[in-house]
Structures are given as structure tokens and as C-alpha cells.
Amino acid sequence: MKTGVLISRDTALIAIAEKLLEGSCRIISFSNIGSGLDYIYSLIPDILILDLIVNDAGAVTILNTLKNDPIFTHLPVLAVIDESIPPLRWDSVFIEDYVWRSQVDKDLSARAKLCILRAERVVEVNPLTRLPGNTSINRTIQQLIDKGVVFAVGYGDLDNFKPFNDHYGFTRGDEVIKMTGRLILNIVKNRQPAGSFVGHIGGDDFIFVMDADLIDATASEIVAAFDGIISTFYDGAEKDAGGIVGIDRQGNPRSFPLISLSIGITSNRNHQFSHFGEVTEAVSEMKQYAKRTKGSCYRSDKRHNP
Asked: Is the dihedral of CA 210, 215, 219, 220 positive or negative?
């Protein structure tokens, strides 16, 4: 059941909205947007329906401020507009769609549902790799759990990246991150064009989700391809030496080998998961296990936990 916040003083409109959206969206109404802010901030509803009336500039200001907050950028806003209102400047009112008041009975339900669907299709992306971020990752995993689909998750993490980044600078470090994202995406999509997913948790951590029968071979290919490319990011002498001299976390100079890629894998084939958090915890354990091995590698969870 979705949740919608309706801002209106019109009791007839509230009653119509509750009736039209009954069964698909629970409507919580407030007489003005200011009184509903605490609820909106604490719950983050699936849609905001705003009854725009003449001279309601204050509501538009509050709405625009809300939508400028990164948390609420993708909150869909459906406006109910009276035909008597002067034409709006759409570049100054942050709404996704509108319904004429005279057409509420006919259009409100369809427009509200479409707004919600559009918002669910919008994924937040990492600005560096343009891959989906944590919200999309968690949503994808949870949807597979809820559907009862057998799937596997890979968690890739770079080793010795920090000394490389410190030594060469963040610009070259960013290039390594982008290369890793492109590499994982291309190989995963080549192995499984439909139904697979690649996300960027942030930093040098990546997630990929795919068919459990394909993920081990995919991880093996990713590791091999990464090792074949990573040395090209080092200068000649350090490339020949197989690493760089940097400072460790204790402030002591030491030699660091070439960046490597560790991948942990888990699947609901051997585990019973009910929440995406259980999946991310299990795959994080396998990633940490893989990192104990020097060089690039992957480790797949073969434990059984029915």
C-alpha cells in the first residue's frame, strides 16, 4: 500500500481522492503544506498531492524548498489546479504533473498512479560512474527476494587503492574507479543482457546482481580482465616494479603492490533471505574473506543456511 499526502482545505476533494485511490494509496490530508512538513520529513510519502489555489505563493515556495532537498528530489508532486488560476510558469513550480479541478473525478487516480510509477523508475546515479546507487541496489535485491527469484550478488572492492590515490592524485584515482565500473558493467551485461544489475555503492565498492548459475564465471572474467588492465594506470618504473612506495595507515613508508580486485559472492540458493540487509551482510562477509587473499580473486559462499 502506497502512502500519499494531500494538501487541501477542500473536504470534497479530500473525500474524492480517498475514494478514487482506495486500495492502492492511503491518503493522509493536511490543510496546508506547512502543517504537513513534519509528517513528510518523517515518513517520506510515495506522492504529494497539492491543491493549488489562487494567491498560494507561500505553498509554492515551501514546495520548491522541499524539492530542492536531495532527499525529496524524486518525491512526485501532483498538483490540482483550478481553471481560474493564471497560467503557471512551469520552470518555477516543482511539480511533475497536474489535474484540472473540473477533471479530478476522471483523471486523479490515473495521474497519481503514473506519477508514482515514474518516480520508481527514476534511479539515483553515482556522478562518477553513472551507475545506480544504494537506494536502487537495495530496491533491486528486495524485489528479487519478494518475487522468490533465485539470484546471486557480487560485491567488488579494490585493494591498495588508497595509496595509489594518494600517490597519483584523485584524478587518476577517479579514472581507475570509472574503469572498474565500466568493466564490471560490460562483462555482467555481456554474460546476462536481461535481468542483471550493476550498482556503485560509492568509493571503490561495486555491486552486481545476476543469475546464480552465471555469477562465478562472470566474477572470474572480471578479475582476469581487471588484472590485464590495471597496470596501465601506473607510471613506467612503478609498473615494472609491480607497485609503489607509499605511507601506510600508521604513517610508515612501505611498498604497496598493484591495485587488485576482491569479489565476494552470495546467493539465496544456499541461504534464506527475507530482507536486503541480510544479503548485503552475507556478501560483505564474503568480500572480506576474499580480501585475505593477495591479489585479485573472488570467493563464493558455499555455506548452507536454510
From this structure: negative
Q: What is the pLDDT of residues 157-206, one digit of tens each?
A: 999 999 999 999 999 999 999 999 999 999 999 999 888 999 999 999 99
Q: Tell me if 155 sits within 8 A of 134, measured CB to CB.
A: no
End-to-end CA distance of the chain: 30
Which one is the CATH code of 134-300: 3.60.40.10, 2.60.40.3500, 3.40.1280.10, 3.30.70.270? 3.30.70.270
Q: Which set of grid coordinates corresponds to residue 128?
A: 562518477
The pTM assigned to this predicted structure is: 0.67
Report the distance separating Cα 48 and Cα 30, nearest Å.
11
Residue 233 and residue 176 in contact, taking contact as beta carbons nearer than 8 Å: yes
The CATH number of 2-121 is: 3.40.50.2300
DSSP 91: G
Is the pLDDT confidence value at 153 over 80? Answer: yes
Residue matched to cell numbers 534511479? 123
DSSP code, position 301: -
Paired with 97 in beta bridges are 78
Indicate the length of the chain as a whole number.
306
Question: Residue 114 has which C-alpha cell?
Answer: 503514473
Residue 105 one-letter amino acid? D
**Cβ pair 173, 234 in contact under 8 A:** no
Which cell numbers hold the place of 212? Answer: 546464480
Given a contact cutoff of 8 angstroms between Cβ atoms, the answer to whether 17 and 6 are in contact is yes
β-partners of residue 50 are: 7, 79
